[in-house]
Each structure stands twice: as C-alpha cells, then as structure tokens.
Amino acid sequence: MTATTVSAARQSAPGWFKNLRMLVSGQEGALTLSLALLVIVVGTANPRFLAQQNISDILLNSSYIAVAAIGMSAVIISGNIDISVGAMIGVLATISGQLSIVPGMPVWISWLVPLIVGPMIGAVTGFLVAYLRIPAIVVSLGMMSILKGGLILATGGVWIYNMPPEYKLAQQSFLGLPVPVYFMLALTILAALWMRYSPSGRAIYAVGGNKEAALLSGISPRVVLMRVFMFNGLMVGISSVLFATQFSSIQSTVPSGLELTIITSAVVGGVSILGGTGTVIGATLATILLRAIGNGMIFINVSAYWLQAVQGTLILVTVLIDLLRRRRQAAQIRG
Amino acid sequence: MAVTERPSQLTEQSNPIVSRLRAVVLSKEGILFLIMIAAMLILSLLTDKFLTTNNLLNQLRLVTEIGLMALPMTFIIITGGIDLSVGSIFGLSAIVMGFLWQDSGWPLELAIIMCMVVGTTAGFMNGLFIVRVGVPPLIMTLATLALYRGMALGVSEARSARGFPDWFFDLGQRQFLGIPSQLWILLIAAIIAGIVLARTPFGRGIYAMGNNELGARFSGIPVRLYKLAIYTFSGFMAGLAGYIFTSRISTTRADMGTGLELDVIAAVVLGGTSINGGSGSIVGTMIGLILIQLLKNGLLLGGIKGDATIVIIGAILILAILINNLVQRRTGGD
C-alpha cells in the first residue's frame, strides 16, 4: 500500500485527475460502468434483483470462479494457458470432501490439503511447459484427460454427502456477506498488489510480453513460469475448497465447461491472450459482471434457454468495445 | 509422406535414398506413424478382437466427424489461430436441420443443405470479426462457443429432433463399396486438404502467415482473405460433421458435441501441428486422429476401463509431443 501513496503523492493535481480518467477508461472502468448500468436497468425493471439476498448470491457464486480466474490471469499474462483448471477443481474438491468425512479428521486438514496438492499439480504442468518446452495448451489438455479419467477411475463418480457442518466454510457468513466473498476480495487485492509492485510479479508481465528481453534483463523465464503455474495451482486449490464447501453434496466428477468460464472471466477482464497485459482486478470484475448478467436475465424474464446466447453476445460486445477503445487510444498517441 | 520432408534435408548430397528415408522416418509424422504401429502391435496382443478389418473400419466411422473438423483446424492452427467454436457450430447446424424438418415442415433435403449453410455462415462470422475487427481468434471463438451453443439451446428449448426417414441414415450407418459411407467423404476431403496445404500457393501462404504474418502480408499474400476462407471452411466442415453425426446416431439435441472442440484440437496437436503456428500437416493430423481412436478402442477391448483409457490418452498426448520435440531438436528440425 505504501507504494501507491508514494506515487500518488508525487503527482500534481492534474496528473491525479488524468490517472482517474485513465482508470475509468481502462478495462476495469469499462467493466465497472457496465456493471453499474446493468444494476440500474435490471434493478429498475425488477427491484427484487437488488434484494440483499440476491446480491449476496451473485457475489457468492462469483467467488470460486473469480479466485480461479486470478490464477488463470497470471497464467495468460505469462503467455500461456491452462485448460486443466476445471478438472483440477473437480479433483481437489473431491479430495477435500472425502477427507472431511473421514471420522476424526480435523476439518482444517480437508481445507489445507487442496492448497498443497494444487501447487503440486501446477508444478508438474509448469515443469513440462518451462523446462521441457511443451506448449501449455498441449500439456494442460493432456493433464485435463489424466485428471478427469483418474478421478472417475478412483472414485467411480460417487456423490459425497454428510460433510460435517463445520466443514462448510462457504456457507458461513461474516458481517452479512458469505465468507467466500472476503476470500475473493482479499485474494484479488493481494494478487493485484503482488503482480503490480513486486519484482517477482512484474517478471510475469516481462516474460509474457517479451521472453528474450526478459531473459536479457536477468529474469529467468523458466523460474517465472514454474512460479506462475504453482501460483495458479494454489488459487485453484483455494477455489476448489470454496466450491466444495458451498454445496451440501459434492459429485466426484469434473464440472463440465468450468475451465471455459474461468478463461472467459480472465479474457473479458482484459487479460490479453497474447500475454503481457491485463490485471486480476479486471478478471474479478468480469466474473461478477458475467454472473450478474446471468442472474439479472432471470429477473427480466429472459427464457433460460436463451441465457447462454445472450451471455455469448455480451462477451463479444465487451471485447469489441475494448478493441475499439484501444484502437482509439493508439490513434490518439500517434496523432 | 513425401510432402513432409524439410528443404534443409532435401539438399543433403550423400546417398540420397538413405537420407531421404531418414528424413521421412525422422519427420514428425514418421515418428508418430511408428508410435501408431507400435500401439497397434501391443493392442493386438492384448485382444484378438482389435486387429480385424470390421473393427478398424467401424472405429474409423466413429472418428469421421472429428476428422472432418480437424482438417480446417489444421489450417487454422498452422496460421497461429484457433477455432474453439466448432463443437457449438456442429450442434447448432444439426439442431437447425432437425427443427426445420420436424417443426417447420421443410423437406429434409433442403434442411440438410441449410445445415451446411448455417455452419458456413457461423464460420464466416468468426472469420469476418477476426479479419475485419481484429478480434484475436481465441477470444472470438470463445465468445461464439457460448453464442452458437446458446442459439442451439434457444432454438430447440432443449427438445430433440428424431424420427428421420430411412434414407437419411444411408450416410451415417450404412456402407458404400464395402467401406462406411461417411469414410469416403473424410478420405476425399483429407486428400484434397492435404494437397491444397502442401502443394498450392494458398497452402504455402498458410504456412507463411503462421511463421510471420507481417512478412506474409508484405510479400503479397492476401492474409485477410485466406483467414476468412479457413474459418468459413471450418464452419462448413462443422455443419457437414453435424449432419453426418445426426445421421449416425439418428437424433439431434442442442448439447450435441459439447467439448468436441478439444477432441479436434487434440488430434491436430498430437499430429505434430505446432500450436504456435508455422508447421504441421494433414498427414500428421490424420495419424493423430486415428491413433487416439485406436487407443481408445484397443484399450477398451483389452479390458481396460474407459476412464483409464482417458488417462492413458492424456499421457500419450504429452509424451508424443515430448518425444517429437526431442527428436526434432536433435535432428535440427524446428
């Protein structure tokens, strides 16, 4: 936090104003405005959308996706991708749930183990990508198959019931908001600060932006990539605990299409798929926006069958607006 | 196989036959072919039901749809792009066909044509946004993955279309000249795609774009037109595959082909096409496609559970790329 205050203090008033304008015109600003617009429009059409319970539901259902999207953002910023996150969440949630129903097992162990296994899986992916130089999409495609098949093989896809009540972290509330929402907020802020201000965080952008230049300036892309994939594993681990503890039962299979939801959140949040740019704040805002859109459509009586089509259109519109904005900015700089 | 060797190896002077043979065997496709033969030998030892003409032909019938979509996907990945929406186009085209016939009373022949038209249009839209607006292919097709699937859901309201007349199943369930009918389409399409990619200015342009798009543009290759063409082609093939699949399984539903895009990409990537663009071949894609299916089938017949099969295929995907990377590095290929 000290770094922000220092840099803000150095700037004069107009500079500060410019910063504010840049903030609003950035992807985060665009997303916040879209979110505000959505809340106003849907809230006017149907005030029940704004009920505290509904807002809290939207945030709760965004949480585990947003936490995973933080890790995904780092991976994409480093110039890679991880398609196996959905399968990882399935595996880790199952491990966590299975541990929680072992008699006499302290509940914190079933919360902790996914946070250890997640980075271990991430380390394997990272090693294959960074040291053996296999493209990340191939590694994670293979990893997805391995985890998906392995999970059903080991468990037969059974449902896990009867988790002890104290295990259900995500069903607890604090100051009127579900606990996962605090995880989402805290992790987003911590990750944003880490990636923006620490050398190890900036290195992710450097590697994603230009690998050779990063290497020449003394950054080891291999180490950075290992770190990124392990960080992603940790975020997926936390995400899977939030996911597993949110429901009264867990099916030991891979939730289908979850990886695409997570990638979509990161991408709509402004993380460039080419690597090198984007922030986790954008990713979290995008997650909430996408959730709110899905939820809001129910309140204005859009047929549930058309929900996905509208969501797809909105993703496209968000991306188009961002592209046009960037093009205009580029034109301004040139002109 | 002759289309796969590299120019650098062509220039070797010492004993042309041996060096040519070496080039073919050590090419990405050559190594993959050897892996496939080895896998087939092992699988035929596991069970005698595997290596029969009937079984093998039936297995090829099952991969026709993925194979058809893998052809344009090879072109697209070589240019450095990707098309994640093929599974959704596949589902949307088939749903439109089914409901035009079942609900709107169109003649089935016309509905089949519309199936291809819808696919082509969907692919064209992808291409148009990618070249005109400059949306990165991954993002564009990620958005249309949701959009096209959503349209299929919206149109069908999760109902299915069924009860097609008997002639409709000719393509998907019957044989023509002793070979599953749809396999002829795949065979002909693969040969044409292979020749176009390896032997025409268009094909060379595709490689050039994948290696250096700006360079390709400056050397007069109509980059945008070519891109538009391959994404449209991808949509068309997804539509065609949707028709063939419906004909094979006799019914169509909106969630048909969910996640199929990953199977298609896996076949292309296992076939040695670099996900970063610039290299790859149709021969490789076809070997990758067949290898995955034979493994699935052979392991299943050999008494290994279906879920273990998925694990093994995942491992082989990584291993095959790893082995190829090592060999290519040693022989000085990319």
* Assembly form of the protein: heterodimer
User: What is the N-to-C order of secondary-structure elements of chain A (H for helix, E for strand)?
Assistant: HHHHHHHEEEHHHHEHHH
Name the helicity range of chain A.
over 70%
Radius of gyration of chain B: 20 Å
Q: How much of the residues of chain B is beta strand, in percent? A: under 5%
Element-level helix/strand string of chain B = HHHHHHHHEEHHHHHHH
Give the C-alpha Rg of chain A: 21 Å
N→C terminal distance of chain B: 18 Å
**CATH level 1 class label of chain A:** Mainly Alpha
* Average pLDDT metric of chain A: 84
CATH topology of chain A: ABC transporter involved in vitamin B12 uptake, BtuC
Tally of DSSP helical segments of chain B:
15
Q: For the largest interface in this structure, which chains are involved and how many residues does each contribute?
A: A-B, 45 and 48 residues
Mass-distribution shape of chain A: globular
Tell me the count of domains of chain A: 1
Q: Provide mean pLDDT of chain B, rounded.
A: 86
Low-confidence stretches of chain B: 1-12
Tally of DSSP helical segments of chain A: 14
Keywords:
heterodimer, A: 335 residues, mainly alpha, ABC transporter involved in vitamin B12 uptake, BtuC, two-stranded antiparallel ribbon, 14 helices, 74% helix, 2% strand, globular, disordered N terminus, B: 334 residues, 15 helices
Q: Your description of this structure?
A:
The complex is a heterodimer of chains A (335) and B (334). Chain A is mainly α and 335 residues long. Chain A has a single domain (30-325), classed as ABC transporter involved in vitamin B12 uptake, BtuC, CATH 1.10.3470. Helices cover 74% and strands 2% of the residues of chain A. In chain A, β2 (173-174) and β3 (177-178) form a beta hairpin. In chain A, α6 (107-130) packs antiparallel against α11 (221-246) and α8 (179-197) packs across α9 (199-209). Mean pLDDT of chain B is 86; it is low at 1-12. Chain B has 334 residues and is mainly alpha-helical. Chain B contains 15 helices and 2 strands. Chain B has a domain at 49-258. In chain B, a hairpin with a 2-residue loop joins β1 and β2. Chain B has a two-stranded antiparallel sheet with strand order 1-2. The interface between A and B is large, with 45 and 48 residues.
